[in-house]
Structure formats: structure tokens, C-alpha cells
Amino acid sequence: MEESSGNMRSSEPTAAMKKVREKTAKKRSKEEEEEEEEQIFNFKDKPAGKEEEDEDLSDSEESVFSGLEDSGSDSEEDEKESDDNDDEDDDDVTAVESKQPKQTEEEEEKEEVVGGVTEREEEEKKEDEYEHDSSDEEDIRNTVGNIPMEWYKDFPHIGYNLDGKKIFKPIRNKDELDDFLDKMENPDYWRTVHDKQTGSDIVLSDEQVELVNRLQKGQFGDVNFNEYQPSVEFFSSDVMIHPVTNRPADKRSFIPSLIEKEKVSKLVHAIKMGWIKPRRVEDDTRGRFYDLWAGEDSSILGRHKMHLPAPKIPLPGHQESYNPPPEYLFTEEELALWEQQDASDRKLPFVPVKFSSLRQVPAFSRFIHERFERCLDLYLCPRQRKMRVNVNPEDLIPKLPKPKDLQPFPTTQSLVYRGHSGLVRSISVSPSGQWLASGSDDGSVRFWEVCSSRCMKTVQVGGAVKSVAWNPNPSVCLLAVALESVVLILSPSLADRQVVQSSERLLSGQPEADTSDAAGPVIWSDTEGEELNQGIRLKIQHPKAVHQVAWHAKGDYLASVMPDHSSHLQVLIHQLSRRRSQNPFRKNKGLVQCVSFHPVRPYFFVATQRSVRIYNLVKQEMTKKLQANSKWISSMAVHPGGDHVICGSYDCRLSWFDLDLSTKPYKMLRHHKKAVRGAAYHRSYPLFASASDDGSVIVCHGTVYNDLMQNPLIVPVKVLRGHVITHDLGVLDVTFHPTQPWVFSSGADATIRLFT
Amino acid sequence: MGGLQKKKYERGSVTNYITRNKARKKLRLSLPDFRRLCILKGIYPHEPKHKKKVNKGSTAPRTFYLIKDIRFLLHEPIVGKFRDYKVFVRKLKKAYGKTEWSAVERLRENKPTYKLDHIIKERYPSFIDALRDIDDALCMCFLFSTFARTGKCHVQTIQLCRRLTVEWMNYVVAARALRKVFISIKGIYYQAEVMGQLITWLVPYQFSHDHPTDVDYRVMATFTELYTTLLGFINFRLYHSLNLLYPPKLDSKAECELKEENEEDYALNSECYLEKLSALSASLARMVSSAEEEEAQLDQFPDEMSTNLGKREQKEQEAQKKLFDGLKFFLNREVPRESLAFVIRCFGGEVSWDKSVCIGSTYEVTEETITHHIVDRPNASTQYINRYYIQPQWVYDCINAKIVLPVEDYFLGVTLPPHLSPFVEEKEGDYMPPEKVKIMALQRGEKPAQEQEDEEEEDEDEDEEEEEDDNDDEEEDEEEDEEESEEKNLKKMEKQRSQVKVTPGKMKVENPERLEQEEKAEEKRLAIMMMKKKEKYLYDKIMFGKKRKIREANKLTAKRKAHDDAEKANKKKTRK
Question: Could you tell me where this protein is found in the cell (chain B) (predicted)?
Fold first, then answer.
């Protein structure tokens, strides 16, 4: 047929074409599939029995006329059976476009398809041919092939017949009107089909129409074809007498396989060598879980003693509830604060929320996070046993004797001495306890009657008074005043005549021959005139500014302090009766803050910035050096017994030294909030007081026992407040009444107060 | 001099510690494996006292382990298994690469596995030790059992977790061990007392998780591996302590009932059983018949009771165990079924739900004997007369209060009273929400006052009085300053002295009690001054903490008061 259908087809014979097919396996398989399809078709067709010889359409010898019939049936299909064989049509189109090598098969395919579908027509036509032999048109074979017929639009012919002669178009073409008339008049119009290839109209016969109808319904073309024939199984469970194939068995089926042997031996070797393990058998004899602690022995592992179980997660509070009490919800400020804070600073890791019912509670988005963090804690955090101090704070407070039992001590402010206009730097009480002297920055020294707070006398000294000290000898009545670089000796004449006379006598003692100390730094001079009238009796001119004066208990010696970093001349001791001065130290051992005489023994206390040195005046050597453990000593007081010293310092501390015990402070009292400015012992009662810039005077009870083994008992008994803080200065000096448990304090607010 | 030169960092505390990397090298493990080993064996880093010494003079941040711990790990058989696994993975990869499928199959069959039994035994030598540490295990298993069966971890793990948690819940039901429940925003906390140990666990709400990306699931999976083993053994032991069968079997009677009801195929047979168990509606099968056992228990009682206090406590506990005895609950479909069923069954109530919600429902809505119907909607469509319609919070609050609370506050559509945490135990001076006070009064058997508002007002009055007292205290504190003010008065007087005037003086009434108080306060202040530095520091710290606590409590009361006032004002407005 290929030969006959000329121009578009390859001119190879079918045999050759088959060779081509065999070349590409893939294609072949595809084709085989197609062949199968055909076969099925044919198989189904067969029982119809109308066709005798037409077994295999792919068989080329058989379908001599198929090409022609193709053309004929093609057009039919296009018009009537388009829905039935859409696929085939598509295939056709693609096939046309595809390339040469493919064409062969595809043509074949087309051929098959066409053949398959339009068999009935073929048959009929064949019948026509052979039985009636009446149709002329059927003989016309157009060999142009499957091409768009409009290519022949402009020619008088529409193709060539088998002999190569032109087939001419029918002479008269129908126009629209003819067509319409035909439609109206011709009863067979509906079954008339235009054959494009021949240009003629074909009237379908009744059988053909019926066939078309059947195919359109999706039924088989053959009326008598039974779709549901009993199937014949080739391979069934029944044992057949005869084999399916009669091929003799291969030799290899009798001989043991070498390859298999090799494989088995390999496996055997691998098993022997332990490379392949036999399949593991799950031993679930006692189940996955059993009583692990059945044989619970008391012998705990050594390791386990050391084991620290992880702390449990803290239990949730009311805040975490889905419906917490309203007070636990955040206010807006709290929420803002929470959002601002760093995650680690937050008190709660979540924001409390209130839901009105349980069904509204959503999933917690950080649940997995929290669990994961817990996991991390469990295996990454070092664990430590921490001793939690579970003490009652009341137990921490030391048990002290009640202040009530330690009376008497000053408790209330009873008198205020007013009159000074500047801050009162220093005060001193007369040994009789009747008079109080005060020196102030306003350049005056005032004498007060203690009981009445009356100012008895005011002496203008013409300079800020740094220090005043009343002569402790009760038989004389003298006051030492330090101002600028002068020390004045005042005789206030506030005593019996006898006492006044004795003090006069003391002052009138003639100076020693000035031969030895003529060039000494100190100039003693008597006063005259106005000053004398005021009571100033002596002037001791120092080379530098004097900060403090201190009397010896006997009342004859007087020490003055001139603090200076660079000089060894910082302390001078004056003898009043002989008007003699001397510098006890040859070396500068630091900035001297204050000095004091031992009340009974010949010792001399010098407080420098960090330490207190004690000198034996007889042996002329240092006996002790007390380390104050503070930055800057401000004041010092010596216990009347002479064995204890207190030092106030600018770093708020008051240190108590027990000279018998150690050179380190026996106790550091950090009672004050600000710098301690003054400290004082009571002469007879076991009291001491400290004054500070925080405006308070703290009175402590400090019992000193005669038994050396017993340490002094220190109990703060009263905090006295009264002074107003002015210019960051509070109380500047404090001193006790010699006989009564009263304490005087002078402050920066220009007042002196008496607490009784 | 002579002698060997002493080298630095070769003796002393350095020899006790080893850094993580060195430990890893010593064990020849990769970091993930080392991590896994540490998790399984419970090894954690230690913080040396002198870090710089141990760190050989460097201050670089390093993790230190005790060298003893690492030596101990050296003998762990699991280390070998880790290496086997590594080899296995390598072989498997190779087989895949060569497309040797039979080899792949063979390898897979022989996949190395290990058991953690010996580790559990070693970490927890006694059963009580294990029980004490079970909190985290439960939390983790409950979390994993809620995971979806895709990604993140093996399906088997999830199934195992689910099984174990169901077993645990069944045990708690059978032992009636539950003590406290708390619905928080994170999930539901349960606390049970098992063999004298308080065990708390947290169950997330039944929602799907959106898995965070910054979480290492391998770590969690390793923990879960350990925890599932631990929980399994504990469950086994606990079941046997109650003479229950393990793995749990449903009571034969109950089983029959369930079967009748659920004839249609619900799920695979194996899964179905777990589902039935997890429905928690049926009791478990025992090894010995239950009647005998109870008798035995009764015999034991008199011996146990020794002290009077213990007696009372025990009585209370017994009462709590039978809290819901005789009550019949029905759960609507919108309430969390598992939690409520678990809780109600723990306290002896009967519970059921709609058949379509879950397997294992025992009776219908129409049942006449139902006493409480738990609904979480604003209103119920059909209401039966002879039962209470309440919100789920009632059940939880009852359990925490240990009494059956009045149902009025929990009806549908009513604003619920706050749900309080049962874990908070207020000490003196702590803030206690008024609701807690009310509940405590109910526990004592006092009846709530008839008119609530009056009570509230009284409360407020009291509050105000208290506040006044507070003010008084403050005044006392200010006493110190009083002297100063006196001083000022004096000054003024002095100024006024010029115009001499006699004004009638005021009698100063001195309250002896108050004077005494003042005296004591001053004594204390003086004594505090005499404290040693160290003690003073400690004392200050404690006092600071106390003060902060008081401040917080005051803040809460103030907030509450403001809230109540606002509420009241609102009410008045609406009334008008």
C-alpha cells in the first residue's frame, strides 16, 4: 500500500519499513503495543464473520486498496465521527508535522486506526465493488494523500488517479443557493457527504447510517458482536495435560549454577567471619518493662551520695491562673515596664491574662521553649548546694543590757546656750562644773553659767577660736584659747578669790633665763591694757597656726598642736609656771591631729592621721603605736583610767582601743552616718559620747572592768539630736560635765546644747 | 635548694576538673554524642571555686566537668553502642550508594539498639529516688504525646509517650492520688501524692504546636528517650503496688460494656484499646479480686494512725478522695474532656460524654440521674430540671478547696470568681486575695454572710481602719523628727517672746503603752547599731526583703481596692 499511496510516503516496501522498526527498541515496543491494539480489534472483529480474509490490517499485502479507502473514509470521519476518534485525529495532525523516520510508523498507525474504525464502510464498499460493481466513483482513487485539499483550490483537478491521470473536479460547483435548494428538496440530503478528495457527494446507505449511529452511541460497530463473551484463561490453576510451550528444557536447568555457588560461598564465608550477623531475635520474654527495683539493695552507690537532684520547677502562683484575681493583672504602666525590661530582669516571664471562660484559653506559645530551657538547665547548669540562711532577723540583734538599767545618762535636751554668731568650734567645762567656756568663729570666747544658760562674760579675742581648754586643776581658774598662731591664757576670774589668787600666782611665775631657748620659736608675752582688763593674761606666740591646746591633769603643762606636713615642729609643750616651751619630737612622724596627756601617768598621746602614738615622757621614748584602721583621725579622748582610748575619724567611725589588749581597735563603732568630729569620756560615769556631722550626739555606755580578763562592755544608750545642720556641718565638739551625767555639744548652728 | 622544680597547675584543684573539649577527646565522642551521654547519665558541669586556678591562669569562659565523672563515663557500655551506631550509619550509606537493597535491608534489620535499664537503675538506686525525679519526665511525656505525628520526632516515641501518660493517669485514678489542680495560662498543672512524694506535672492544652525553630529537638528527644524508660518502669512498679495488671487491662465488666456500645469499627484494634484506656471512664483489671484487697486495707488503718494531727489530716484526705462520690457528671462537647474526666474520676465521680466526642462514654445526656452537667457556653439549649448546669472551673475549684463548693457562682453566663492557685501557701504578712479568705471560711464550715455587699462594705471599713493603723505606725517612725519640730516650735516661741503672751497650755496626754513601744523601738535601734558588720549586712538584707514583701502586698491590696471601687461605681451607674 505504501507504494500505491505515493508522494508523501516513503517509497520503501513494508518489509524495509519493518526493519526500520526493529532498529529502535523503544519505538518498537510502542509499535508492538499498537499492533496489539489492532489485534484486539481484529480479534473482536473476527467473530462478526463478515470479513473473510482481512485478518491483519498491518499486513501490507492485504490492504491493497486501503490507501484509497483511507481517503474516502477520512473525510467521513472528519465530518461525522469526529467525537468518536478525536484521539486518532490528533495523532494524525501531529503525524503530519513530524519528521521522516517517524512518519512511517505514524502513517501506519493512521492506517491502522482508520482501518480499525471504518472497517464497516470498507466492507460495504468492498461489497459494492464485488457484488454490484455499479459505482463508478468508487474506482476513482486520488493519490494525493492526506493533504489539505485547498492546495488544489486553484487547479481544475484535485489529484491523480492510480494511473497518474488527473482527476478533474466536477464541472459545476455548487453555490450557496444550490446547496440550500438541495437541502430543501433532496430527501437524502442529510445522508449526503461531501468527499473532498474526489469532490463528489456520496449518499450513505441505510447500513452505513446505522453504523454511524451505533458508533456515535459508543457501541460496537457490529450488531452481532457480543461484548461479554466468556473469557478463556490460558493460564489457570488447573493442571493441563499438555505444556503451554513444548520447548525442551535448557541444559542449565539440570546443572547447578556456578554463580549461585559463588554467591552462597561468599555468604557462608561472611557468616563464618562474623560479618553477617543472623537476624536479631527480639527477646520480649519479660516485656519491655519489669520490676527494675525488685532487688532493692540498701548499698547505695558511692557516686549517688554525691548526687544532687535538680531543683524542681517553682510552682505557679495566682498570677499564672487563666482567671486570676483582678489585682494580679498588669496595669498599663506595669505592662509598659514589663515590655521595656530585659527578659532576664523581668519578675514574671509572662503577662498575666484573664479569660472569662475556659474555652477561650489559647495554647501557650512558649510552652516548648520553656520545656527546652528546662532541659538545658538540667544538663548544662552546674549544680551547687547553697546553704540558705534561714535566720530570724531578731536573733541577729545582739542581746544588750537595757539602756534603762544603765542609767544615768543624758536623755533629753534641757538647755540651749545662744549668743554666738559663728559656728562654735570648741567648748570646755570648768573643773568645778559651774562654768562653760566656748570658742567660736565669730572671734569671741564666751563664758556661760551651766545651770542658767546665762552668758557671764564675753571676751573678744580678734580671731576665729580653734580650741579652748579649761585648766583641769581645780585650784586654779585658767582657760587656754588657741586662735590663729597664738595661744592665750585667760583668767576669767569666775571663782573664789583664793582660786583666782592662786592662778595669778601661777601666771606671775618668772620666766627662766632665756639663755638656752632664746632663739626658740615661741615668744611668751604678758598683755596690757584692754586685753588685760578682759582677762587675757598671757600670749604665747607660735610660729604657725595652732589647732588644739590640751592641759596636763596637774594644770601646769600645756600642749599645743600646729599641724604641718613638712615640719618636725608640730607639737609644743609649754610649762606655765616657768614660761618655758619645748619641742618634744625631733622627727616628723606624720600630720598630727590632736594630742592628749595621760590623766595619771607620764604618757603623752599623739594622734596622727592614721595612728595614735603613745610616748613615755619620762623615758622619752615611744611605748605604743595604735593603728586606728581609719583614713583620717579627727579627735581623740583618753579614758580617765588611762587604759582606753577612743578615736573619732572622718570616715564615720569611732574606734575604741584597749591599751592592754592590742594596738588594733577593740571595737569599731559605725554609728554615725557622717564624719565624727568630737569624742569625749565622762570623768566619773562610764559614759562616752561622739559628735558627728549628721547632727547627732551618740552617748554610749562603756563599762571598763578592773579585771583585765574582761573586755569592756559597750552599749549605745542614747542618740541625742538637736543641732541643725548648717553648711553640711553638724556637731563640732562634745564634752561631759565633770560631775553630772550631762553632755554639752556645740554645733555649726552657733548654739551650745546641754543634754541631761 | 635542690629538689624537683614544682610546675604550676599540676596539683591542687586543677586535677579535679577537666574542660568539656578535653573530656570529649578523652571519651572520643562527637559533641552531640557527648551531650547525649551526659543527658542519659545525668552528668552536669561543675563550677570550680577558683576558676582561674582551674583554668590554668586563663579567664576564658569554659565549662568544667569533674574528672571523676568523666572517668565514670569511660566505662559506660552505651558509649560502645554509640560507636556501633556510627558504623551502622556509615554502612547503610554505603549500601544505599551502591544500591544494594538487600544489604540495606539486612543492615536495617540489625540496626544497633541499646537499652537504658541499667542507667535508670544506676541513677535511681531506689524506687523513691526515681519517683522524686519524675516531675520532668511527666511534663516531657505529656508534651510529646501532644505532638503531631509528622516530623520533629519518631512516631513510635509519640505513641510510647501517649501510652505511658495514659497509664500514669489511669494509675492516679486508680490510686485516687490526685491532690491539686490548677488551670494556668500555660496548661493545666496537676499535683498528685504518690507514696508520700508530691509530684507535679504540667499538661499543655490540646492544640497543635507551632514548632519554634530555635529549639534543638535532638536534646529534647534524648531526654524523652530517658524519661520514657523511667516512666515505664515506674508505671510497672506502681501498677503492681496496687495489684493492677500491667500493661493495663480494662475491667472485664467494663470492657464488655464498652464493646457493646462501640460496635462500629472505631480504629485499629490495637489503637482502640489505648483509646479506651485513655477515655479513663472504666476501671482497670486487678490481679486479685478487689473485695479482698479492700478488707486488707481496712486492717492496716489502725496501725498507721499514730498522732492526733496525723489522724485529722488523714481524715481530711479521705474526705477529699471521696469528694465527688455519688455525683454523676456529663461533659458537653466543648469542655476539655480528658482533663475533666481524669479529675472527676480521681475523686470518685462518674463521668460521661457524648458518644461522638470520644469512645468510652457510659451514659447518655438524657440519663435522669445526672447531677452536674458541665457546659462552657453562655447558655445551654435544652435544660433538664434535675441537674445543675455549671462551668468547668467549679470542678477544679472544688478539688482545690477540698469541699463541694456552692454552685451558684458557677452557673452558666455568670462571671466566674477568680481561679486561685492551690500551690500558694500564704504566710503571715503575705497578701491573701479576698476570694481565698472566703474559701477558707467555707472550709471552716462558716456560712457566707447573706448579703454580700454588706460584708464587702464591712471589709472595706476594716481595711480603712487598718490603713489608719498603718498611718499611726508611720507617725511613730516619724517620732524622731518630732524633736526637730519641737525645736522649731521653740525657736518660734523665742521669736515671739518679745510680745509676751500667755496662752493656755495644752495637756499632753501620754499614752503609757505607746511610750513603752517607743522605748522598745529605740532600744532595738540602738542594739542594731551595735551589730557586727557581717550580721548587719545580713540583717539589712532580710529586712529589705521583708519590706519589699510588705510593699508588694500593700500594692496588691490597693489595686484590689481600686478595682472593687470601680466595680461598685459601675454597678451604681447601671442601677441608675
Answer: Nucleus, Nucleolus; Nucleus, Nucleoplasm
